[in-house]
Amino acid sequence: MNETKNTKIDLKVSADLFVGSNQRGKIVIGDKGFEFINNQKNRNFVFIPWNEISHVVASRGIRKGKIVRFSVQTNRNIGYVFTTKDPKKVLKAMRSYLDAKQLVYEKDMFDRLRHSFTDLLKK
User: Hey, which residues does 71 pair with through a beta bridge?
Assistant: First the structure.
């Protein structure tokens, strides 16, 4: 089994990673970075140091307060999509290591429709 690369662990939760197919595992947030450890295949291991994370995008559902999933974008333009039972807890743990400008919300469908409708009215 892969051991964590973090020396101090702040949060450890079960999660799913969506890369090609759904992979179940654990998200570990610690002092050195963000990591995902697969339960079945130890070679499917994702470790992202904090300085390599460009931004984290939280996707909301139909209700504004409910976060469905979140995406971690790296400086090399690689994105990893994760889902957990409590994504707010994960994002709060990441907040202590990332800048507030790096944690953003994705526009939901209604915001996109409203902005496109107002753009049409302006023309």
Answer: 57, 81
- Residue identified by tokens 């469908």 is 109
Quote the CA–CA distance of 16 and 25 in Å, as a whole number. Answer: 6
CA angle at 3 for the pair 20 and 54, rounded to the nearest 5°: 55
> What element of type H or E holds 17?
strand 9-19
Residues 6+ apart with CB under 8 A from 7: 30, 31, 32
Give yes or no for a contact between 27 and 35, defined as CB atoms under 8 angstroms apart. yes
Q: Tell me the whole-structure pTM to 2 decimals.
A: 0.79
The full DSSP string for 74-98 is: ETTS-EEEEEES-HHHHHHHHHTTS
For residue 22, which amino acid is it? N
Q: What is the pLDDT of residues 52-105, one digit of tens each?
A: 999 999 888 776 678 888 999 999 999 999 999 989 999 999 999 998 898 888
d(CA 18, CA 81): 5
